[in-house]
Amino acid sequence: MQMDVVNSGLEVIADRDFGDVQVENLRLMSNHIRLIGDKAFGQMSYSLRSLDLSYNELAGIPRQALRPLRSLEWLNLHGNHIAELVAEDWTSLRDTLATLFLGENDVDHVPREVFSRCRRLIWLNLDVNNILTLERESLPKNIQTLSLNHNLLSGFPSEAVSNIQDLTWLFLRGNLLDRLPDTGFTLPKKLDKLDLGENFIRFIPNNLFNNTVTARDLHLDFNLLTEIQDEAFKGLNPGRLYLSANNIMNITEQAFLGGPEHSLVMLDLEKNKLESVPKALSHLKRLRYLYLPDNKIADIKDDVFRSFCESMEALSLSGNQLKAIPRTALENCSTIAHLNLGHNQITEIHEEDFDTWGDSLDTLILRNNRIYSIPPHAFRYTPELRELSLSFNRIVDVSAESFIDILNTLEVLEISLGFYRDDFPEEVLKPLTALQWIALDNNNFRTISETALYSFGELRYFNMDSNRLTYIPKTLFHQNVHKNLRDIRLALNFLERIEVHTFHNLVGLRTLVLTGNKIKTVHFEAFKALPKLSTILLANNEIETIEPRAFSDLPNLMELDLQHNKLKELSLNAFSNVTSPTTPLALNISYNDIQELSTGSGPPILLKSLDVSHNALKEVPINFLGAFTFSIQRLDLGYNLIKKLDSSAFGPLGTLQMLILEHNGIKQIRPRAFSSLEKVQLLDLSHNHLENLPPECFTDVAFLRVLDLSYNHLRSLPNSVFRGTQLETIGLSHNEFVSMPTAGFAEVETTLHYLDISNNHLEHLDNTMFYSFPNLIELNLANNRLTILPDNVFISLTSLISLDLSGNPVRANFKELFHYTQNVQKLNLANIGFSSSPIIPLPNLNSLNLSGNSMSEIEVQSVESLRQLRSLDLSHNKLKNVRSRLWRHMPFLKFLDLSSNPIKSLTKDSFGGAASIETLVLSNLDDITRFDYDALSHMTFLRELYMNTYPNIEKYR
């Protein structure tokens, strides 16, 4: 059994959230999880085998939550904020855990023996951390796959991996390696993959790994190699060798001796500085795939491929300086199936170019050359050619006989931006009866005859985007010919209308793209009898009229995009026999000028999503919506002209889950306006003109979870306004509340998780206001008029994780104020008016904003409890000095903003102990007179630095 909670915004997992659920696989990725209760997974002790917590906000390993798990084999903690690894974290998992992902965290050190007792751990991923070194005995001896990509390793971790016998995959891409070892390992390695790409390796030592390693796949791409010397890979016996994106200018003739001559089947030398195909290739006996694109090769020796010409299957020479197809060099290479000669300077093709070697050629890429002519029988000697690309050439001379020899084999033809003519080249393409995929976009075709495509009975994909067509012949796509056609693309032409039966009875069609034309009218049955069509895109046209039954017999239509047109009305008469219970429609008619929506007299359609935003509706189209009572799930009426919501304003929409009414100008909501909307979970009423809400306004919306009332004129809430709901999130920002509407929250005290009442006029909070909010996670009180906060005002908010008090002239004993909120991880105290730094005893805090105050000094006692802090904003204060004594109390600090302070000097001592900082903002330090060159030398992991000129310092002006 598997459970997924993905992209939900979940921040806290409490002890009983999963109840008695027992699952084998639990996926909780891409949320905002910061806190996991100690007993959250308790009921899954023996069932849970796989747990995915990737891309959340965890600041540490949830040790206590993992402790009860007795069967966990697979754990993903990728993409969190974990900085420390300790052996105790894995004690409970050491006998079960086999796969562990810890990538994209903040780990800079793997302590000795931290994983050594995890006896079953065979896959460990530590990608994208800040690891500088890897110590001996820091890894389990049974490890088979070790990934350390994109760390800060400056040396090959020989000691750490030397005694690991079963290591088969080793990834070290994107580190700071500048050399490789010439000493061997204690236990020889037979690696399937060794990835050393994206490093700073300048040379390969004469005795790499001292014959103790073989590597089937060896990656050295994106390094700084300039030469490959004799026997560079001796003993490694690579099967695939990646040397792309270096600066290789020379490969010695004996470079591939010592093993590779018998083992190498793939060689990638893309993006180097080779001026010729290296003679060293003549020693390779088994090479099948050779990639040499983006070098400076202008000429190819006749015998350069001779040693492997009978085995070569793929060759890429694109992006070089070839002026002709290298026919002599390819002589007798009769097994080659894929040839890429794109992005060269080839001007002509001759049938002799493929003689003696073209029998097996399947794919030929000649795009981005200077080809102007394709002579008759150009492909006489490529009888198996299936795919041909001639895009981005200047073809002016081509005849009906040019492709005559591949008429039964060619399936894919790409000539984008290649033809210089006004009419569709019907006579040229007509013989190609096997074509399945045609791309002729970005040419200048103005006309196409109604029979132009009749020879293409196998056609599946047709692309003529970005031409200059003004008209589609009514029978261009024929039901008896194009039975296999799936995808038609005619976007960005100059089409003005879609006639009757233009797209008719094409039984295989799935996607139709007509965006960006000048279509004004969609005629009767323009889209007719298309049983598999799922997508029609008509956005960005000039459509004013859609005639009745324009869309007929489209039972699988799932997406119709009509946004950005000129519709003033839409009737359901436009649809006939459209959609089915398993394929409801998503209809987008936003950004028109629609004033009326009518049901007409046609049969009903099933709509799952309707976007009518950015139109001119003056009232809710209740009759129109009634046609979708049992199917619609999402309704967007935002940015219209609706002024009020009457009782039962929407009718019985029993399946609706999301209702958006933002930016209308709604002034009045009558009682029971939302009746029969019991399944709605999200309701957006923001940016309207509401001054009050009727009692029990949302009572009928039993499943309501998220309510946005921000940017209105509310001053109070009726006591029963939320009765019967299950609200978790309430947005009340930018209203006119003078006091906290506590009574209004009475019905949702236990369900409320997120409350935003920022940018109001609140003046007072007493110690009873939050007494009954045990599950509140986020509280935003920013930009009110709060002055005094009682010490125990937050005493009951034990689940609080995020608190924003910014923009309030608050006076409080912050040491006592936060005594009861020890789980807070994000705190905003910007623009409070502090003249001295407050004491903040929050050991779990990871983000603190103190900007916009008047602090001239940060005292040690203010930060000594903030060991887990990751982000600190001190901008726009009055700091004159930066004290190094602060940073040791915040060892994991990643982001620091000191901009717009009157700082006088920055020296090496200023940031002593601030080694973990990755982003430093030093903008607008107008008073600075000293900035030493080594001031930032302690910041080993610094990746982003924001600064500007400093007029008072000569070298920074």
Characterise this structure:
With about 950 residues, the protein is mostly beta strands. Among the domains are: about 180-295, Alpha-Beta Horseshoe (Leucine-rich repeat, LRR (right-handed beta-alpha superhelix)); about 830-955, Alpha-Beta Horseshoe (Leucine-rich repeat, LRR (right-handed beta-alpha superhelix)). Helix content is about 5%, strand content about 20%. The strands form nine sheets. The chain has a 40-stranded parallel β-sheet, with no helix packed on it. Helix 2 (about 160) links the parallel strand 9 (about 145) and strand 10. The protein is globular, with a radius of gyration of 34 Å. The mean pLDDT is about 95. Keywords: Leucine-rich repeat, Repeat. This is Chaoptin.
List keywords for this structure.
mainly beta, Leucine-rich repeat, LRR (right-handed beta-alpha superhelix), 40-stranded parallel sheet, four-stranded parallel sheet
Biggest β-sheet description: 40 strands, parallel
Q: Helix fraction?
A: under 10%
Average pLDDT figure? 94
Radius of gyration, in angstroms, nearest whole number: 34 Å
Find the structural class using helix and strand composition. Answer: mainly beta
User: Could you state the CATH homologous superfamily of the domain at 829-957?
Assistant: Ribonuclease Inhibitor
CATH class descriptor of the domain at 829-957: Alpha Beta
Low-confidence sequence ranges? none
